[in-house]
Every structure is written in C-alpha cells, then in structure tokens.
Amino acid sequence: MIVITAPTGNIGRHLLSLLLESAPAAGEELRVIVRDPARLPDAARGRVEVVTGSHAEAEVLDRAFEGADAVFWLVPPDASLTPQDAYIGFTRPAAKALAVHGVGHVVGVSALGRGTPLADRAGLVTASLAMDDLIAGTGVAYRALASPSFFENLLEESDSIREKGVFTDTVEADRKAPFVAVADLAAAAAGLLLDRSWTGTGSVPVLGPQDLSPNDLARIMTEQLGRPVRYERRPLDELYATLVGHGLNEAFVQGLVDMKRAKDEGLDAGVARTPDTTSPTSFEQWCAQTLKPAVLS
C-alpha cells in the first residue's frame, strides 16, 4: 500500500497519474489523503482508497498510515505560519504516525543545500531540511527529493509575461542554477515508491537537464513564445514589504527572503550534475507544453 499526500497538487497529480499506470502491474494498492475528493481525476475514481481530510491532522494520518508500506510526503507551505510551524509543526504528527504504524519507506519533497555553508541560513530551505531530519529520526527508510526551483514557479508570472513581456525574481541576472519540472520530481518519486529495495536515509537530487540563468530563461521564453521577454531583478526588501503588505506571516516572508538570498549566493550549486542527478524535461519543452498555453490563454 502506497499513500500519497497532496494528490491534487502540482507534484502529486503527476505522481498519482504515474502510479495509476504502474502500481497495478506491481501489485501495489494506492491510498490518497485529500481534503476534497471531488478534485481527484476521473481516472482515480474507484481505483484508489480515499482518506478525506488534511495530512496535518493526527486522526487523518492514523487512518491513512494504517497498513501502509510507503508514503509520499509533501508539505504545502502555509504563508500564515512561521517556517518552523509550516514544516516541522506540520510534519510532527506524521512522524509520530509513521512510527506507530511501522511504515517502512517514505519519499519526501525537500530542497538542495544540505551540507553547504548556506544550509543553516536559507530560510524555508533550512526548515525543509529540518523536516527531513525529523522524518529520518523515526527510523523509516527515507529519501528526500532534493529539488531546485521549479519551472512551474514562472506560471505566477504569466500575466506579467503576457501584458508586459517581463518576469521578475531576486537573483543576479547571469546567476546559473538548476531548475526542474515538477513532472520530473514525480517520476523520481514514483520510481522510489515502486522499487523499495533502498534502505537508510539520504537525498536524491533532481536537477533538470541544465543550469540556467534568468537571462537564459528570458532568451528561451522569447524563442518559444514568439515575443520579447526580459528579466527584471527585484530587490529583496521590496519583495519583503510587498508580501507583508499582503498579510503574510512576517516570519514566513523572512524565510522566503532568506531562501532567495541564499539561492543568489549559490545554495543550489552544491551538487554535481551527473547522469543520476539529471532529469529529462528541458525548459524549452516545458515552455512549449505548459507556459505558452498559460501566457496565450
């Protein structure tokens, strides 16, 4: 039995689709935790066991983890909380339930940066790495999918790209870093969940096919969208003031700012790119399949 948290989110929906294709042949049953079962895809109906509720709640987790062999764990960041509460507080009931129910394997979504000089001052990433330690401390076999920034983050810029030909971030324009499509993370998770021959704890970096700078992203978007797109660097203090002005928790916003500062200082550059850490979806592919329809809609 494989349990999937956040099955309707960006990563979870891709993972659920992959497991619906592969799990039956592997003799695996699927169970999902979801607040609103109506949001599940039609392909899942009658083929997965549904536990309704939030995976922040101990009672929901007790029902979901009973008899489970493996769990896909994803924390949806909550900007109304501090980073500590958003990651550690949210995960603490799960850590208890994993131990109580003797779950053997967990695959979690985390971040790059472990072992670097920036790891303890990277805001949300620091909290995510502490979440990994909490899960690993339960004694389960654990693999953290160590991810860089997602291509999908650019979907938040689709209106600006459409209307102004501009996208923004806070990093230096020529700073190259890995980027990844969420579908590639889902594929890595599916492989680990279906073949549980691994033991112990560790990280699995998923780096996409190449490092890219904001200027590289702008060039590729210009080519793929057939219209000029340029990058504008946004000051960190301006980002902080804007988000706090929108009512987000000040500590969470500071965690976001600290993460972005660390990324601009090379947080995501600590893992060597190898065939094992490289994933297939290129930014060109992602733009054509995902960004272009969003921008042109």
TrEMBL record:
SUPFAM superfamilies: NAD(P)-binding Rossmann-fold domains. Pfam families: NAD_binding_10 (PF13460). It comes from Nonomuraea jabiensis. Residues 8-152 form the NAD(P)-binding domain. This is Uncharacterized protein YbjT (DUF2867 family). PANTHER family: PRESTALK A DIFFERENTIATION PROTEIN A, PTHR43162. It comes from the Bacteria. Gene3D superfamilies: NAD(P)-binding Rossmann-like Domain (3.40.50.720), UDP-galactose 4-epimerase, domain 1 (3.90.25.10).
